[in-house]
Each structure stands twice: as structure tokens, then as C-alpha cells.
Amino acid sequence: MAHLIAPSVLAANFGQLDQDVEMLNQSTADWIHVDVMDGRFVPNISFGFPVLQAIQKKATKPLDVHLMIEHPELYIEQFRAAGADVITVHYEACPHLHRTLQQIKATGAKAGVALNPHTPISLLSDLIQDIDLVCIMSVNPGFGGQKFILHTYQKIKELKRLIKEKGSPCMIEIDGGVNQENASQLLAAGADVLVAGSFVFQSQNPPQTIEDLKQIAL
Q1: pLDDT in tens, 107-122
Q2: Has 212 been labeled as part of a binding site?
Q3: Which residue in 77, 81, 147, 170 has the fewest CB atoms around it within 10 Å?
Q4: pTM for the full model?
């Protein structure tokens, strides 16, 4: 399967969000990544339902919604109603993770689990067959533009082994510090979806930057 590119609108220009979403529609991006932060689980606040609904009205591509919030189970149905196609919750925020995954799937959305840099892959061993996507955080969640954590490559390889061992259909997504220099190594390690925010939106030609990431071959 060809890898997917999911530009993060956290790095978009919110003064021209409509234009940026339309640019993504016209680009070779596969998904639109939407980071939701509550200022409690992570030290930053982004946007909630109104902005997601506004994006959904313009977007022609699936919305990949990453919930960096406490108690995500309280809001799953609302995020699905607001347009989320993939809903990813953090392992660290879900004491009843299996229940939350089932809750997401019951809405018809794909169920994802995100892991902070310090969280080991082994904790997903009993759940991997119930997960559609694992998002490995390659920076500490909360802010864009951070430096990529090199240990991410090892975590991807460990996760790929677990997926194969359990016969899971789970995809591997990488979020944080993705760029042209590390993308091929991430894909070689086993990544399926690359999230790129600042690297895309701060480039001179965002559609071409997306295309360049899309065209990387192993």
C-alpha cells in the first residue's frame, strides 16, 4: 500500500483557513490532520467543534482528528458528528482504552491510539487487533515545529513487529518533525501515514511539498 500524507492544519494560517483547506483539497494529500488540544492534557489550546465543523464543510478529504485531551470518551460522538473520519485518543488519557476504542468504532469512525514519546509499544500488545491506527508521537505533544526524536525509528520497528505477530490491520502514523530528510527512513522503518504541519505550511510551495512527500519511494 502506498503511504498516506496527512498535513496538519494546526500549522495553517487561521486568517485564511478556507483557502488552506481548499489548497489541501486540490493537493495530493490523502487526509487532513486536525489536532485538538485542551490546555490540560497538553500545555496548549487549539480548536474544538466549531472549527472542525467549518473545516468539514470545505474539506473533500477524510478528517484525521487527533484528540490531545483529557476524558476524550465524553466527546467521541460530538467529534464524529462534527466530521471526524479517524478519531485518535491518547493511551495516556484513557484508563478504559478498550471501551473507548469500541465507542469510536460504534460511531463508524476509524479508531486510533496515540503514544507519547515515553510510552512503550508493548503496552498495546493486548489491544493491537482492535486498533485501526497507532499514532507514534515523534515530538512531545502540544506544539508544532519541534525537533524530531530519533528513538521514533526503533518504536516504529517494534510496532511493525507487533502488528505482524498479531495479524492486525493497524496502520502506523508518525506525528511530529516529519520532513523531506527523515520521511524515507520513517517509511522504511514501517510507517504508513506521515503527518506534516510546519514543513508543509511554512514551505514556499505547500502543494509541491505535499507532492514531494507523496512521491518518496522506498
Answers
A1: 999 999 999 999 999 9
A2: no
A3: 147
A4: 0.96
